[in-house]
């Protein structure tokens, strides 16, 4: 006897009542408790099955009055049977047909003539067991299919030989942008980015093995992805296939590249930059010095580590630098004044350094010094200073007013002559172009401005002009202005340098001479008339005497007149002589 | 004769010499003499508008001088009636140039005037017809 946990429910589809009773008998022999129902034709069976499907087994006789073709009958019943095991009962003559039904899904077939209690019970038992195993297998397959479909990682199944897609999961569709239908028409090769050859090579070598690799893939929209591929050979629907798991590592690859670039940049800055970067401990010993020191100061960085910075700094600059170093710790950064530093060849170089206190940073644990070689700059500055000093000396030595006018900024600068000659305070902050214009005499202004315009617009290098310039007290001085135009490399006017000479004395002197000349001319004219008047009279009178003597009544009168005129002439000449003596 | 002869000069000796020579050369036996400019201008103004004048004019005179006289004459609309002989004690080029700007000035002579000068006066085209011998 079988001990059953669940109650056995049997449906018997049998038109022959005797056979049904027989079956019921057999079952009663083996089972203490069971339910049994009978359908005498297919139509009843269908009704019963549609009402209730949880039969443990269905016993089906193949010869029913309302179905003429047994094949159709078997298939209809199987369709309605759901999870119930179907056992076919057949006569000896239909043995072959009974066997055939197995391939359609029937669990077992029994020859009516051979049925006994134990055969029937066993058949029911085996059929049920087989049905259960099959169901479990189906469920397990379904579970795995769910796992594949629901996996957050892109997965697909390829034909192992052709590399065509056989299946693909949602994550893959989402990542690559193809629908399932599109995927199933594709070959994996169409996912490989242009120039990607690793996929083909690796696949050929490991056709039937597990392998993993990193590939560049392309999505439907052409976006490039970096993916880690792991792929295993499997059998899928009876075909040689491989299941592949792809992880998108594009973000990771990009981050790695960024990090690499950042490292390269840092390396370039530290190694090949124009700054020497060093880390100094609290006792001013080098714990690190950047490789750029080799190029800049001609020293091997390894030789410097551990040595005190003051071994390298010029003794004359040491005290000055130490003064500044006292501020380290009080301020985040300290800028040191330029100092001399011994390079690898023992020559002194000028450096400029900024110290940052990074003792709190565990990665540094010290002071970071950024140093720059400014030797060239210092020398240039020195030359410039000397040149400026020379200029200053010249400007001081000359009595001329030196004007330096910056055209762009409208800035006007003078030497001391602005106060010494013209009386303006040298500290005046109003000096600019329009200030200067206001000091030019209004009568000269138009002429001078026109010259100035010509100078700037036509880029005339030199300009000489004379005009009147107002002093602080409102009086005017005559000046000779010699201006020189400075241009930049492209020839654009930048500055005007003018040397302005006070020529008031000279001008006044020349004017005095000219005035005196004019007076002299007038005197000469007057004198010539004064002198010649009496002389002309004398000549006229003598002419009369000589040519018209016969018509002249009074010769004495004429002679008297000659005498008077002669005396007058004498007087005039004496006067002139006296004047010139003075 | 419709030509009036005027001498304008403040120097009596000069006037004496000029009167003698004008008479000798049959230019005038009785010229009008003025010692200064103003009376001469008054006289001209009082005379008949048809009359023409030959004027011997000195430049340097007290009060109005010879230039002032020329200035006044040139204001007159019928200034062609005045034929001026400038007579100066000393010839300067700039005076001569200045004189040439006045259309009435016919000659520029240096003192003392001579017979030659008088002959030149009579040959001046604008007045020569007054001296044609009958």
TrEMBL record, chain A:
All residue ranges annotated as the PAC domain in the record: 463-515
Coiled-coil region list: 123-150
The protein's enzyme class: transferase
Modification 4-aspartylphosphate occurs at: 61
Keyword field: Coiled coil, Kinase, Phosphoprotein, Transferase
Keyword rRNA-binding appears in the UniProt entry: no
EC number(s) per entry: 2.7.13.3
Reactions catalysed: ATP + protein L-histidine = ADP + protein N-phospho-L-histidine
GO MF annotation: an example: phosphorelay sensor kinase activity
Domain PAS: 140-184, 262-332, 380-459
Limits of the Response regulatory domain: 9-127
Name of the featured protein: histidine kinase
Organism of origin: Salegentibacter flavus
TrEMBL record, chain B:
Response regulatory domain residues: 4-126
SUPFAM superfamilies: CheY-like (SSF52172)
InterPro entries noted in UniProt: CheY-like_superfamily, Sig_transdc_resp-reg_receiver, TCS_response_regulator
Any one biological process term the GO annotation gives: phosphorelay signal transduction system
Domain of life: Bacteria
Modification type 4-aspartylphosphate: residues: 58
Keyword list, A-Z: Phosphoprotein
Phosphoprotein among keywords: yes
Gene3D superfamilies found in the cross-reference section: 3.40.50.2300
Protein name according to UniProt: CheY chemotaxis protein or a CheY-like REC (Receiver) domain
Species this chain originates from: Salegentibacter flavus
